Amino acid sequence: MEYKLSFKDYHKALMKNKLMGLKCKACGTITCPPQMSCRNCTGFDLEVVELTGKGKITTYTTIYVAPEGRENEAPYIIVLVELEEGPWIMGNLYDMDPARADLDLIGKPVELGTRIFPGDKYSDGPAARPVFRFTDGK
Known about the structure:
This protein is mostly beta strands. It contains 1 helix and 8 strands. It folds into 2 domains: 7-51, no CATH class; 54-134, CATH 2.40.50. The strands form 2 sheets. It has a 5-stranded mixed β-barrel. The protein has a 3-stranded antiparallel β-sheet with strand order 2-1-3, with helices on one face.
């Protein structure tokens, strides 16, 4: 059995500022980031779909101690976003000063952007990752 949407293809789409997911033909659930089976019914009959990248913040955390190779970026905010299509994904929130982060962030509408993060000694080199910005101001 092979992946309908490999991480390599997911990554290529992110490099073009597109967010791809998988829609289950059995139950209609959308899974993102991609995996082998439906996150709801575990079915394998999936089709690749492009997602809007729009959603709302469900929670966040501020990172003060960054991983190796990103020390100069701290502090920064990581958000968990519920996409309009249903899945929840994480990414950096890049248009807010981390010192201003508070519970008012929860529920704020955001949209996808993409950023290339440098690789480290444990990765396969630079990779695109989801990042988010506010859609209607702060």
